[in-house]
Amino acid sequence: HVQDQYFEFLQFLGIDPGPVEWRIPITTSERAEQAKFFAELGGPAVAVVVGTSRPLKNWPAERYARALERIHEKHGLIPVIVGGPSAAEREMADAIKAATRIRVVDTLGDNIRRVVWILEGSRLVLSPDTGPLHVANALGKPIVGLYGYTNPLRYGPYGHADSVVDGYARTPSEIYAPSMEYREEGMGRVTVDAVVAAADRALASDGLREPLNSPEWPPNGSSG
Q1: How far apart, in whole angstroms, are the C-alpha atoms of residue 42 and residue 30?
Q2: Cis peptide leading into 19, omega within 30 of 0?
Q3: Which of 20, 112, 166, 192 lies deepest, with the highest CB count within 10 Å?
């Protein structure tokens, strides 16, 4: 995994990188905003990341729509679209909202801290291989990673390869190495059925993972 390669710098210096703790902070004021947002939402959320910097990493809007409908029907989760202000993300979000028959809350914007506390407060996070997926993993959230273009053994959610829907494998039985090879057709192999099944598993195992963040910041009420 690429994270283990980064750790080699520490190991070279004689520093043990474990245990891995990212400690992503959620401030007291952000907790208040978070509580207000989810109270107004009116139910548990599935945070949905809809875009990446590489179009070939993205999943089709129609498949998002069908998967979100089924996750909502089975688990009562309200889709909350999170991400940045790029034109590609806006186009994808609009396409998903137009294609789905359920309520979808759109929070795209330029507030990274808001993205963090929405991810942290959501019941489930659904995302392709991009930053918010790895933030959600660091926060200890139940996640479903959509992988096809990038190799999940190398770029998957660190320590939680079981949280990936694997479209990278060309056949279900393919055994591959953690290479840097990209597979342009891979996201087409990520099916709605596989994503819904992965969501079922992630939600069933919720509570078994330890969050890797500090719940409040500054710690112990200090200012530093």
Answers
A1: 19
A2: yes
A3: 166
| Prediction pTM value | 0.87
Classified as helix, coil or strand, 28 is: helix
216 is written with which tokens?
A: 């409040």
Express each pLDDT in 48-61 by its tens digit: 999 998 999 999 99
Q: Which of 123, 153, 129, 105 is nearest to 53 (CA)?
A: 129
**Cα 120 from Cα 174, distance rounded (Å):** 34
Q: Tell me the C-alpha to C-alpha distance, in Å, between residue 138 and each of 21, 135, 158, 186, 213.
A: 8, 5, 8, 25, 7
Q: What are phi and psi of 209, to 5 degrees?
A: -100, 145
Alpha-carbon distance of 126 to 49, in angstroms, equals 6
**Confidence (pLDDT) at 65:** 98
Q: What are phi and psi of 222, to 5 degrees?
A: -80, 165
How is 107-150 classified by DSSP, letter by letter? --SS-HHHHHHHHHH-SEEEEESSHHHHHHHHTT--EEEEESSS
What pLDDT, on a 0 to 100 scale, did the predictor assign at position 182?
97
Residue 208, both tokens: 């078994």
How high is the pLDDT of residue 81?
98
- CA 19 to chain CA centroid, Å, is 22
pLDDT digits (tens, 9 = 90+) for 99-137: 999 999 999 999 999 999 999 999 999 999 999 999 999
65/142 Cα distance (integer angstroms)? 20
- State whether residue 76 is helix, strand or coil: coil
